[in-house]
Batch of 2 targets.
Target 1
Amino acid sequence: MTAPGAGRRPGDAGQLPVVAAVALGGGLGAAARYAVSLRWPARPGGFPWTTLWVNVAGCAVIGLFMVLITEAPTTHRLVRPFFGTGVLGGFTTFSTYAVDVRRLVDSGHGRAALAYLAATPLAALTAVWLAATATRRALNRPGPAVLSTPAPDDLVEDMSGVSDAKGKKSS
């Protein structure tokens, strides 16, 4: 017989509020997605526009949210698990996307399936990037440092040493 609590790692009990926040947020996000699919159902054999736009909209909100939450001076520790992982994770849907691709193929719409297969991740990633960029600009904050680093081709090297992108000698 094992003693109560044996095998648990220290701090596991502190994760209960995080798990509860994710579960509650996930339920709300999934319910919202289901409500959208009831409001704008896809036609049988038709292109799954609703799922595409749910995923794109959810990813745009993720881009906005992640800038706000990661660059905010203080945020409650449960905000990100509740809204980011829970609500937005429950709202966006990879499983329905995969089922939609299969349904398009099975109904003889292979080209539409390939278009959807490519368009969804492309549009979703673009939405994240555009929303994050727009949010940073609205907040008047620079983007990540990696984006502002000059490309190697922009650096100038002369006989007296290494110069920066504007040709000024670095020290």
Target 2
Amino acid sequence: MTGPGPEQVSARLGATARSWFHRALAEASPATGTGPGPGTPGPTPAWQHRFASAGRACGAEFALDVRLALLVRARPSPATLARLYRHGARGERQAVLTALPLLAPPPDTGLLLVEDALRTNDTDLLAAALGEYAAAHLAPHLWRHAVLKCLFHETPVTVVAGLRRRARGDSELGRMLSAYAEERVAAGRPLPPDLTFVLALTLLPKE
């Protein structure tokens, strides 16, 4: 499970924010929150406006969990999920990425969002993109570069779901990490804290 459930989120909110959240959940229910079908013009469902304004209504501390609850309740189509990401601010994108394992969109949609996040230098988006969805679907070449990017930004590799399974016995990842380490040493720069750990994984036999 990614994030707390709606009841847990609700219990942490103040009275005004809790009332707002309950209305948002009701609007996100499939019976009321589906909106027009694909390609059909019509108003944007109310829950999507609330998805965007969650930070203002509930506070930045709770915005991610509130948005996750709305996405899980609404179960948006892949096209809607992609639109929420493409047109969303940083916090909205983080929520979409974090929800991917729960919503399980087809890879031709979900991976486009993951790959877009991996091209940024935003460490929160990078961490959100490297959850269980990426562990299951991201191609080896892109996954290896994502791990290297975590090390470059000194993002803890604990954010990389499935790291032990995918890195174990991966000689190509080991080669990339060794080359990166040599570059750092040659430049007189310290090695990232997690590099030795990941490199050791690549030396283990595949299970």
